[in-house]
């Protein structure tokens, strides 16, 4: 008879591994080395990195404890929120290696120099870089930003000789807000802007854009804010019939351009309109009666055009300006009109 020594049942290795992981959580929460390299380069490129509050010599941004202004998931940086800190310096050229980045807020600082490419940041949804001093934007900056919903580059002196809105941006089909005022944009508005069906805010003021409004904007129902004012000596031109078909509009700023022709008669279809600024253009003809039917309209500025009387009767609470239209002056201005 052969005797065998009894043995305890074998425990699966995965149970032992689970015990080890739970016992040493910090060891398994280290920041991805590539992400740390980018953040380390970022702080080294700042003249006043102490404003970030990141620990001197620290090497684990995702913690614990997590560094200020960051959010992480599984050791990857997903958000940087460092607005209004007065940061001075540049962004590192390897910034687009933060491949899990979803939300970036660096607005209202004093960052300068060349913007790094954002090419391939396919998970980036929100990018606020406005009100800094970036002076160059690379040609491939917009490539592969397929998740982008918000892009704000306002008031950066980019490419002083001028640059055009790149076709790469049309791959950002989820784009809802696009603000690039005061960025030295030149050329015509690209057709693809009207094909971005999620777009609700389009602000490209204070640039040097030329040409007509793209026909692709006709019938766009989602855009609420359209600000294309102040385009310099050449300015945008052509008619503005398209805006009467953009029934979602709330704010329309087209002043200080070279638009011509009549103010569209069908504006009463844009029922949510609150502001219509058309001053200092070349509009002619009558002020359409349909504008008087817009119950939410608060500001209507038609000054310095070549419009003709009669002036329809508007509600007394409307802030209305028609000064600088010489054909209107008959000695009896409208009660609520500014001459």
Automatic annotation (TrEMBL):
Highest taxon listed in the record's lineage: Eukaryota
Pfam family for this entry, one: LRRNT_2
Membrane topology: Single-pass membrane protein
Keyword Repeat among UniProt keywords: yes
An example Gene Ontology CC term for this record: membrane
Compartment annotation: Membrane
Native organism taxonomy: Eukaryota, Viridiplantae, Streptophyta, Embryophyta, Tracheophyta
Leucine-rich repeat-containing N-terminal plant-type domain segment(s): 33-72
Swiss-Prot/TrEMBL keywords: Glycoprotein, Leucine-rich repeat, Membrane, Receptor, Repeat, Signal, Transmembrane, Transmembrane helix
The keyword Glycoprotein is annotated on this UniProt entry: yes
Primary localization class, coarse: membrane
Ranges annotated as spanning the membrane: none
Name by which UniProt lists this protein: Leucine-rich repeat-containing N-terminal plant-type domain-containing protein
């Amino acid at each position: 008879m052969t005797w065998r020594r009894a043995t305890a049942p074998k425990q699966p290795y995965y149970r032992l591994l689970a015990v080890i992981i739970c016992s040493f959580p910090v060891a398994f929460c280290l920041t991805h080395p590539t992400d740390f390299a980018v953040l380390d380069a970022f702080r080294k490129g700042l003249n006043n990195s102490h404003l970030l509050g990141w620990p001197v010599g620290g090497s684990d941004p995702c913690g614990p404890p997590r560094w200020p202004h960051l959010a992480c998931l599984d050791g990857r940086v997903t958000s940087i929120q460092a607005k209004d800190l007065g940061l001075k310096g540049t962004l590192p050229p390897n910034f687009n290696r933060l491949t899990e980045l979803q939300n970036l807020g660096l607005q209202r600082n004093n960052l300068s120099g060349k913007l790094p490419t954002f090419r391939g940041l396919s998970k980036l949804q929100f990018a606020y870089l406005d009100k800094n001093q970036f002076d160059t934007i690379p040609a491939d900056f917009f490539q592969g930003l397929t998740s982008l919903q918000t892009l704000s580059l306002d008031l950066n002196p980019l490419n002083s000789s001028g640059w055009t809105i790149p076709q790469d941006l049309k791959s950002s089909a989820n784009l809802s807000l696009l603000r690039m005022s005061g960025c030295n944009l030149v050329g015509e508005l690209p057709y693809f802007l009207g094909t971005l069906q999620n777009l609700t805010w389009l602000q490209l003021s204070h640039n040097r854009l030329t040409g007509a409004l793209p026909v692709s904007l006709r019938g766009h129902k989602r855009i609420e804010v359209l600000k294309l004012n102040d385009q310099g000596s050449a300015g945008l031109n052509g008619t503005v019939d398209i805006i009467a078909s953009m029934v979602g509009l709330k704010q329309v700023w087209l002043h200080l351009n070279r638009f011509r022709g009549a103010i569209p008669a069908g504006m009463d279809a844009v029922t949510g309109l609150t502001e219509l600024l058309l001053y200092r253009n070349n509009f002619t003809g009558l002020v359409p009666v349909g504008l008087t039917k817009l119950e939410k309209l608060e500001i209507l500025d038609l000054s310095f055009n070549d419009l003709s009387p009669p002036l329809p009767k508007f509600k007394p609470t409307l802030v209305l300006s028609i000064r600088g239209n010489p054909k209107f002056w008959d000695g009896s201005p409208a009660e609520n009109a500014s001459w």
